[in-house]
Design brief:
The chain is of the alpha+beta class and 245 residues long. It contains five helices and ten strands, in the order βαββαβββαβββααβ. The chain is globular, with a radius of gyration of 19 Å. The mean pLDDT is 96.
């Protein structure tokens, strides 16, 4: 009987085409599956993540599960993955879990952080949106409060979103100022394709005076707001952690 393992994975998404396996280009899932297949005696495996991060998006705590027909010690799996994948992937934990654990469907909350650097900082260019210039930070906080609660995010997600329901429950939404950064923290039960980046990009547009919080509320209410929806660049977004019961 196959043994199920839970992995906690950190990665720099800069040089990946995203989490999901692709026919061309590096993917986090693809690189890990290549090593896991070797550990499984050459038998193909499928690594299921808690969600699919886009190209250029990073993770400090992506969670995934995999079934192996050849049982291995978790430490052996972790060492092999870290030794045989690129330096931009690190498996931070590996543990045996019950067969009913599912990295995606068992998850209760996902935590994301979007980092904005308020000046050009060369060493931060891979992990932040560098955004000097005027920005109404009080307006950002007002917008963040509107995101709290249950909303239909149909107007703040990619047209490629496959989920039938666009309703998400957001339990934390706030901007946090740290030195030269202003970071957006958001926690929710689920997220749609490009949803966090579109929320951030649209809030920044409003904070630059090209709309109002009322326009964001209109989008959440399913109406046509006066503000144009923008998608923030991927490099500022980090999946921080995934919570389970």
């Amino acid at each position: 009987m196959p043994q199920r393992y839970r992995l906690t994975i950190e990665y720099d998404g800069t040089d990946f085409c995203g989490w999901q396996r692709q026919r061309c280009g590096r993917s986090v899932q693809g690189e890990l599956e290549t090593v896991l297949q070797t550990l499984n005696g050459g038998e193909p495996v499928t690594l299921i993540g808690s969600g699919r991060t886009d190209a250029g998006v990073h993770s400090l705590g992506q969670v995934a599960h995999v079934d192996l027909s050849i049982p291995r010690q978790p430490e052996t799996i972790q060492r092999a993955l870290n030794a045989q994948t690129g330096r931009d992937i690190q498996v931070r934990g590996c543990q045996i879990v019950d067969a009913d654990f599912h990295a995606r469907f068992s998850a209760r909350r996902r935590h994301y952080l979007y980092r904005i650097c308020r000046r050009i900082a060369v060493l931060e260019r891979r992990t932040s949106w560098q955004l000097p210039g005027e920005l109404d930070e009080d307006c950002l906080q007002e917008c963040a409060k509107l995101i709290l609660g249950e909303h239909d995010f149909s107007r703040l997600c990619s047209s490629r979103t496959e989920a039938a329901s666009k309703i998400c429950q957001i339990s934390d939404s706030q901007w946090i100022k740290e030195d030269i950064f202003i970071n957006y923290k958001i926690v929710g039960n689920r997220f749609l394709h490009s949803m966090v980046r579109m929320i951030v990009g649209t809030m920044i547009t409003i904070a630059r005076g090209k709309g109002s919080p009322a326009d964001l509320q209109a989008l959440l209410d399913g109406e046509d707001g006066m503000v144009q929806v923008h998608t923030a660049p991927p490099q500022g977004l980090i999946l921080q952690q995934v919570d389970y019961e």
